[in-house]
Automatic annotation (TrEMBL), chain A:
Originating species: Terfezia boudieri ATCC MYA-4762
CC annotations in GO: GINS complex
Protein name: DNA replication complex GINS protein SLD5
UniProt keyword annotation of Nucleus present: yes
Residue ranges occupied by any DNA replication complex GINS protein SLD5 C-terminal domain in the UniProt entry: 166-222
Subcellular location: Nucleus
Keywords from the named record: DNA replication, Nucleus
Any one Pfam family match given in the protein's UniProt record, by short name: SLD5_C
Function of the molecule: The GINS complex plays an essential role in the initiation of DNA replication.
Chain ranges of the GINS subunit domain: 57-140
One example of a Gene Ontology biological process annotation: double-strand break repair via break-induced replication
Automatic annotation (TrEMBL), chain B:
PANTHER family: DNA REPLICATION COMPLEX GINS PROTEIN PSF1, PARTNER OF SLD5
UniProt function note: The GINS complex plays an essential role in the initiation of DNA replication. Required for correct functioning of the GINS complex, a complex that plays an essential role in the initiation of DNA replication, and progression of DNA replication forks. GINS complex seems to bind preferentially to single-stranded DNA.
Segments forming domain GINS subunit: 67-153
Record-given protein name: DNA replication complex GINS protein PSF1
UniProt lineage: Eukaryota, Fungi, Dikarya, Ascomycota, Pezizomycotina
Low complexity bias (residue ranges): 116-126
Length: 222, 216
């Protein structure tokens, strides 16, 4: 019974937060998750759209009101600008964290449609052009002098694939934020560890074991 | 011995990782390794010529020879790739941090050409650039790609600092004359050794380029 009331209260609290603050909190969470996860997570298009729209509005206010020498306005401007710098940093760090991963596993991403679908269109375009550039660079630097059958960059001969993949077994810190479905429990592949996850639990675990919940939103990386 | 050169190259790559600048491109070594790969490949083809339908189980000795050659070829290829990859990453890093490598290259080149006219030219002309022509081309293209991608986020400045901002205004000291800059609060003349209290966003580029030093 108590739990029910708490849930209702929590739900209520959530709604009372203004949508702009909620967006900002979401972006912070996404940024942290992106930094923690070994693979590129789904792109938060609508969220970023909304935030960019607000940044533009704020920049307009700043531009309109600079030059106004009234002390109060000036102070307000400084607050807005400080806030602006912080939000900009957040967006920048989020995008850069994604790009770092895109640059790290380009060949894996391009050949893996489900992973590729996590990227935004500009990111896809960047990935393709970057890969083409790299390919060209290797080719003109030395591969062109190689026998034709050895020029590929994605050989899997000898049982070892040349394509580096994100290490889904790396450890992540995460927190359970929503109640998991009945009967769901944490199973770590290759071991017989089984843990029942409760809401609010914080665990360190291989990313692979919580991946589906991270994507589903039940678990957040911290 | 097969693979020795590859090892040398990888050691170069390893060393490059911990250097702040890019050491000269090992074109001699690259050429030698590529040659080794071609020679090995020719060996393989020649060895196989008398046997149109080679069955490894019939002749284990020959099969082993072929395997060894193949592995050497692949190893060399990986070494080359690793070496180039490390350098490419360095180049990309420079593109991101805004230090214009191409400009530096051109400056040194310009000096080299001027020098050639003079008596001391030859020595300087030799150390024109640590990038290979292919790498220069790559740097140019990557800068373009980066600029294009950045263009979609003009309000954010993707190449900006990745340290979370603490204060809107910061103290900076001018290390090199940077001329006059325009800010919302008027023009500031950045002369060497002077000190200013300015908006971080206005001078970020100059800090990255080493004109200003942030004081904490």
């Amino acid at each position: 019974m108590d739990d029910d009331i708490n849930d209702i209260l929590a739900e209520f609290d959530k709604r009372s937060v203004p949508s702009s603050t909620q967006d900002l909190n979401d972006l912070t969470k996404q940024w942290i998750a992106e930094r923690g996860a070994p693979e590129v997570l789904p792109y938060q298009g609508p969220l970023l759209e909304r935030i960019m729209e607000r940044i533009r509005e704020q920049i307009e206010i700043v531009e309109r009101e600079t030059g106004d020498l009234e002390p109060n306005a000036n102070f307000r401007l400084i607050l807005i600008q400080t806030e602006l710098e912080r939000v900009k940093f957040l967006v920048r760090a989020y995008l850069r964290a994604r790009m770092a991963k895109i640059d790290k596993h380009p060949l894996y991403l391009i050949n893996n449609p489900s992973a590729l679908s996590h990227l935004s269109d500009p990111e896809k375009a960047y990935l393709r052009s970057h890969l083409a550039l790299l390919n060209n660079h290797y080719l003109s630097s030395f591969l062109r002098n190689f026998p034709a059958q050895l020029r590929r960059l994605d050989d899997a001969a000898g049982g070892v694939s040349m394509v580096e993949e994100p290490d889904l077994d790396s450890a992540v810190f995460c927190r359970v934020v929503r109640v998991l479905e009945e009967g769901e429990e944490l199973v770590v592949k290759g071991t017989d560890a089984r843990v029942e996850l409760m809401k609010g639990d914080v665990v360190v675990v291989r990313y692979r074991a919580v991946r589906k919940w991270v994507l589903g939103g039940e678990v957040e990386l911290i | 011995m097969y693979g020795d050169l590859g090892l040398k190259l990888v050691q170069h790559a390893k060393r490059t990782q911990s250097l702040s600048h890019l050491p000269p491109y090992q074109s001699e070594l690259i050429r030698a390794i590529t040659r080794e790969v071609r020679d090995l490949d020719r060996d393989v083809t020649e060895t196989l010529e008398p046997y149109p339908n080679f069955d490894p189980t019939q002749d284990p000795a020959l099969a082993t020879l072929l395997l060894a050659n193949h592995i050497c070829i692949r190893r060399n290829k990986r070494c080359l790739l690793a070496y180039h990859r490390v350098r490419v990453e360095k180049i990309e890093e420079m593109c991101w941090s805004g230090s214009d490598i191409l400009e530096q290259v051109q400056v040194t080149k310009g000096e080299g050409q001027e020098g050639e006219a003079g008596a001391l030219g030859a020595a300087e002309g030799g150390s024109v650039s640590s990038l290979s022509p292919e790498e220069e081309e790559y740097a140019r293209q990557y800068s373009d790609l980066l600029a294009a991608y950045k263009g979609q986020w003009t309000d954010i400045d993707l190449t900006g600092s990745l340290d979370p901002p603490r204060d809107l205004f910061i103290d900076v000291r001018v290390l090199k004359d940077a001329g006059e800059i325009q800010t919302e609060y008027g023009a500031i003349n950045l002369t060497k050794n002077s000190q200013f209290f300015v908006r971080q966003g206005d001078v970020e580029r100059l800090i990255a380029q080493g004109f200003l030093q942030k004081l904490s």
